[in-house]
Automatic annotation (TrEMBL), chain A:
Pfam families: MetW. InterPro entries: Methionine_synth_MetW, SAM-dependent_MTases_sf. This is Methionine biosynthesis protein MetW.
From TrEMBL, chain B:
It comes from Paludibacterium purpuratum. Transfers a succinyl group from succinyl-CoA to L-homoserine, forming succinyl-L-homoserine. InterPro entries: AB_hydrolase_1 (IPR000073), AB_hydrolase_fold (IPR029058), HAT_MetX-like (IPR008220). Belongs to the AB hydrolase superfamily. MetX family. The active site is at S155 (nucleophile), D320, H353. Its EC number is 2.3.1.46. Residues 49-356 form the AB hydrolase-1 domain. This is Homoserine O-succinyltransferase.
Length: 195, 380
């Protein structure tokens, strides 16, 4: 098993307690769950809309269920997971608020990560008159899956509105943690939230 | 290593006779009885690489390969089983068995009742999926297989794979349940009953004892198969293949075959009625109707599945309306609630229920990926 994990997934993994029951929404090829199973002895499932990714998960030894997050998490019972993960996907969802509520219905805690629209490079591109295209936002405006952009404050306001507690926040710029003016200097935001 | 797909080659059917009575759900103790089976590949020294293939309504033990070089048709799942194929016989010892009540060599209504020397006919007991699983378990004992690396089946075969994992949790490492359901819906039972009525109302059925009269209730069986066949295809699939095509290009204003779909269905019905036993068809449809593993657990499927120690692959096909993806999702939901490892694929296909026998690339991909993992465990 490959023990190297993409930097952003590594940061998520650091927040996962050993033996936890984990649900990874939009799990892709299952790299995070495979790593967690091996190094944190977690159990659980990935959810993927693409059957090709389900097959790649299976190859990685990860249980994956084909499904569409936009229709909610009705396959999963209340409180049946210790942790539900949504990694760099919330900005591409139509039912943004619903998925957040669903995550905390089926899980005790949730981890949500997203590209920070307030990142200075994005602001600079907008200032120069163009929609931002960058490493974390690698799409042109006309073919982007990303429809619900937000900055740190926006996400925190949505949590506050729904009575969701912020348990932990890390903001990154590439491999580097950002402490100073995170909404300006951070390109990726990581939140651990709960009820 | 080459991944060229090959045939398992020339195969031979085998028989296993059992004299210990098999206590059936209907109350009858069946004895003696015979199971017809085939095997492909080699059982390894640890006897850990055995895979059981469970057949659906019209299937049997001849799953792969041919009986002779000039044999026109191969086993019914030959496209899935063989060296380099998803169920790879370079790694797996594959067992196909004809279920009790079948008409391909295992004890069934058309075979002779040893007590009377006459065909069983109407006196052959009705079978259930758990009965079949018990019989298959005895065959496994006979072959020295304590634990299947995988039990695999589509449709009614998937029901057997599921039942295996509940009834013999320690004997099934993986269950692959394809285009199946945790129980039939009222609509599904209704289709089965129309098929049965077609057979039962054929004057040549003779209450199931038509063998003595030297006749076969061909018309009933033909109708039953035609109806079944419609439900195994999708509207889109049928439309693509036949549309409103006319055989002669114009209306004839009569009741002979005019549309291509009529011709196709009649051909399928005729072919089937020549080779299948009417009593077996009745019995198989009843086994489908009765299947409900949750029933013995206060109708709680999750409680039934908590017994299981297996890992699962569940697959369904988008255009399958006889065993729709919703029914597979029901099973997946229960497996998740029972904390069983399960992967689920909902395959885009226009092939309807029959898709489980076809080679839609995402389906093959998923089967190949899953079974490669099973093979790796076996070889570890």
């Amino acid at each position: 098993m490959n023990t190297t994990l993409r930097a952003d997934l590594r940061l998520i993994a650091d927040w996962v307690r050993p033996g936890a029951r984990v649900l990874d929404l939009g799990c892709g090829d299952g790299a995070l769950l495979a790593w967690l199973q091996q190094h944190r002895q977690t159990r659980g499932y990935g959810v993927e809309i693409d059957v090709e990714n389900v097959a790649r998960c299976v190859e990685a030894g990860v249980s994956a269920i084909q499904g569409d997050l936009e229709t909610g998490l009705s396959d999963f019972a209340d409180g049946s997971f210790d942790l539900v993960i949504l990694s760099q996907t919330i900005q591409a969802m139509h039912h943004t608020e619903e998925i957040l509520l669903e995550m905390l219905r089926v899980g005790r805690e949730a981890i949500v990560t997203f590209p920070n629209f307030g990142y200075w490079q994005n602001r600079w591109q907008i200032f120069r008159g163009r929609m931002p295209v960058s490493e974390t936002i690698p799409y042109q405006w006309y073919d982007t899956p990303n429809i619900h952009w937000c900055m740190l404050g926006d996400f925190e306001a949505l949590c506050a509105k729904n009575g969701i507690r912020l348990l932990e926040r890390v903001v990154m710029d590439g491999e580097r943690r950002v402490g100073f003016l995170p909404n300006l200097f951070g390109s990726l935001a990581f939140y651990r939230v709960g009820r | 290593m080459s991944n060229t797909e090959q045939s398992v080659g020339i195969v031979t059917a085998q028989s296993a006779d059992f004299s210990t009575p098999l206590e059936l759900a209907c109350g009858v103790a069946l004895s003696p009885y015979c199971l017809k089976y085939e095997t492909y590949g080699e059982l390894n020294a640890a006897k850990s690489n055995a895979v059981l293939i469970c057949h659906a309504l019209s299937g049997h033990h001849h799953v792969a390969g041919r009986y002779a070089d000039d044999d026109k048709s191969a086993g019914w799942w030959d496209n899935m089983i063989g060296p380099g194929k998803p169920i790879d016989t370079r790694y797996f010892f594959v067992v196909g068995v004809n279920n009790l009540g079948g008409c391909h060599g295992s004890s069934g209504p058309a075979s002779l009742n040893p007590a009377t020397g006459q065909p069983w006919g109407s006196t052959f007991p009705l079978m259930t999926v758990p009965d079949w699983v018990c019989a298959q378990a005895r065959l496994a004992d006979r072959l020295g297989i304590d634990r299947w690396a995988a039990v695999i089946g589509g449709s009614l075969g998937g029901m057997q794979a599921l039942q295996w994992s509940i009834d013999f949790p320690e004997r099934v490492a993986h269950a692959l349940v394809i285009a199946s359901a945790p129980k039939l819906s009222a609509q599904n039972i209704a289709f089965n009953d129309v098929a049965r009525q077609a057979i039962l109302s054929d004057p040549e059925f003779h209450g199931g004892d038509f063998y003595a009269h030297g006749v076969v209730p061909r018309r009933g069986l033909r109708l039953a198969r035609m109806l079944g066949h419609i439900t195994y295809l999708s509207d889109d699939g049928m439309g693509e293949k036949f549309g409103r095509m006319l055989r002669s290009g114009e209306f004839k204003f009569g009741y002979d075959v005019e549309f291509e779909i009529e011709s196709y269905l009649r051909y399928q019905g005729d072919k089937f009625s020549d080779m299948f036993d009417a009593n077996t068809y009745l019995l198989m449809t009843k086994a489908l109707d009765y299947f409900d593993p949750a029933k013995s657990y206060d109708d709680d499927l999750v409680a039934a599945l908590r017994r299981s120690r297996s890992r699962y692959l569940v697959a369904s096909f988008t255009s399958d309306w006889r065993f729709s993806p919703l029914r597979s999702r029901e099973l997946v939901r229960a497996l998740v609630a029972a904390d069983r490892p399960v992967s689920y694929g909902e395959i885009e296909s226009t092939h309807g229920h029959d898709a489980f026998l076809m080679l839609d690339p995402p389906y093959v991909r998923l089967m190949r990926s899953y079974l490669a993992g099973v093979a790796a465990e076996v070889r570890a």
